[in-house]
Amino acid sequence: MTAPIGKREIAALIPHAGAMCLLDAVRFWDSTTIVCTASSHRDTENPLASGGRLDAVCGIEYAAQAMAVHGGLTAVAGRRPAAGYLASVRDVACHTARLDLLADELEVTATRLAGDKAAAMYGFVVRCGAATILEGRAAVVLDAEPPA
Fold this sequence. Notes:
CATH class: Alpha Beta
Largest sheet: 7 strands, antiparallel
Strand content: 35-45%
Radius of gyration: 14 Å
CATH architecture: Roll
Helix content: 10-25%
Oligomer: single chain
Order of helices and strands: EHEEHEEEE
C-alpha cells in the first residue's frame, strides 16, 4: 500500500485546475487500482452542476480523473502520457439521481483492466458510504490528438 496523497499532488498529475480538480485525496494506489476521495460534489459552485443540480452521471468525470491520476502515478519515469481522452463508457449504471444530495464524501475506485502505451480500459465504481452510486467501464486513449 502506498502513502496517501493530497489535492496538490493530484493537481500536478492531471490537466484540471481550480474547482475542476474534483478529487481531494488518493487513499490507495498500486499497479492496477486507485481509490480516491472527493467532497466537491457538495460544493454549490461545482463546475459540473447545472441548475443547482449535480446529476449522478457526473460521477463519470470523477472516475475519469481517478484514472488520469492512476496513469500519472504508475507511469514509468519520463514516459507519462502527454494527454489522455475518455473515448467511451460502457455498462454505466446510476443507482441514484444526484450527487449533490449526498452528505458523505465520495469514494472513487478505478481498476485498470487492460491497456498498453496507447490506450487503457478501466472499471470504475463511485460509492458514498456503503452505497454504490455509479459504476461502469471506460476506455481511455493516451497521447492522442485533441478532438477538433
